[in-house]
Amino acid sequence: MTLPSSHFRSQTTTTAVFASAPSTPNHLRSRVMPTSTPATPAAVPAANPDGTGSSDTPSVRRERQGSFGGSQRAKILKPFNTANIKILLLENVNETAVSALRAQGYQVETHAKALPEDELIEKIRDIHCVGIRSKTKLTRKVLDAAEKLGGIAVFNSPFSNSRSVAELVLAEIVLLSRQLGDRNREMHEGIWSKVSSNCYEIRGKTLGIVGYGHIGSQLSVLAESMGMRVYFHDVVPLMPLGTSKQVSSLDELLSVSDFVTLHVPETEETKNMIGERELNLMKQGSFLINASRGTIVQIPALAKALRSGHIGGAAVDVFPKEPAANGKFFESELLGCPNTLLTPHIGGSTEEAQSMIGVEVSQALIKFINYGTSIGAVNFPEVDLRAIKDEENSIRLCYTHMNVPGVLMRITNILADHNVDKQFSDSKGKIAYLMADISDVTPEQIQDIYRRVSETPTNIVTRVLY
Ligand SMILES: NC(=O)c1ccc[n+]([C@@H]2O[C@H](COP(=O)([O-])OP(=O)(O)OC[C@H]3O[C@@H](n4cnc5c(N)ncnc54)[C@H](O)[C@@H]3O)[C@@H](O)[C@H]2O)c1
Predict the structure, then answer these.
(1) Who wins on pLDDT, 348 or 20?
(2) Where is the composition biased (Polar residues) (predicted)?
(3) Which ligand 1 atom lies nearest to the CA of residue 233?
(4) 151/281 same-domain check
């Protein structure tokens, strides 16, 4: 199974692709029924010296015990020899991810830069999981070369940088209000231009937030702490934070705000959301900020409104067309517009965000590899089961398969004589994923279940965790 490379690209987040864990019965042969390893109290999961098991964090243990009513211990699954798992991290993926994955006992190879296609093709052959940022292109050719590849789950971390974006926008509100971009440029040109006309404090001014999600709501709190009045518009009714208020339409928001800031996703509805009509609805001399997606604002209309003075200034971090590499490639009608702050899509680009992304994505990967949990995958059915009971003869079956009629009947037939404690399946497009926890199975029965499930014609990857 391969997916278009666009599935693996993300401008602001680390995207990790899990390419399949060893799923042959080797681990069953070598260690059919291991005894469970007691969890260590370490804050970070630590691998056993032989790499055969993973220890666990206290918080994970609490979570699992809770799901069994507190008294029954949760089982620490031993999917395989963790030391056999090879992970390739490119583009300087944050150290938090590197150490979390190494702590599991996985082999982690890191590179500071993206690799060219031919080098990536060589490297990816025996890799189970690859972590990238925005430069790497996992093309069809590259994916076809990945011999361990049976199914791909892509995990990203879209909300780790919300705070970074909100802080940048808050700063831009002050900068625009004081025309700081222009003063800074003039000073660098040797021009001393001390002015106070049309420069304002932000205290008491109205901020209009379009899209009250992760970033919009975070900004709402920060702006109120600076003394701003906050209104927002969102397509869904939302609980306002602090003393902010939801207004009933975009038009209303535009007409009452001194600053309008956009925090909506890119959808058919939000494309070209702010054009000439909307800019004309905004107050004379008000400001527009866009750190969401480039297609949401019609740039020629904004440039015209800035040059006419109807819009008093703008801060733009995202553009309909953005250069693919750093260098002197940027062109826009906004170049040279008055009081206009232009930044190269850096809203979420901070050390803190990178670190959070490393933590979040590596945890998602570890859960997928060790427990089969695919929650948070962007292209793959999202399935989770509560923890498996701490009994020696229970297993977890993870079955990635083609989403066609009749599969569940086949699986039910295979499992018919066994005690299935819990089972969950979900599909996304052509792919479906089933997880089932089965108790009271002998080592021979485990082999048999594995063989029969992996031999089904719809099989993509079958894994048995035990
Ligand atoms: N500049 C950067 O570096 C950077 C970094 C992170 C995110 N972003 C972008 O910021 C935007 C917001 O991110 P987020 O994490 O807050 O998203 P989010 O999904 O948490 O919130 C988006 C909000 O917009 C609302 N919404 C959707 N369509 C709408 C419409 N037509 N009108 C009004 N509201 C609408 C949704 O209901 C939701 O509350 C996204 O476009 C994201 O890609 C940019």
Answers:
(1) 348
(2) 1-27
(3) 33
(4) no
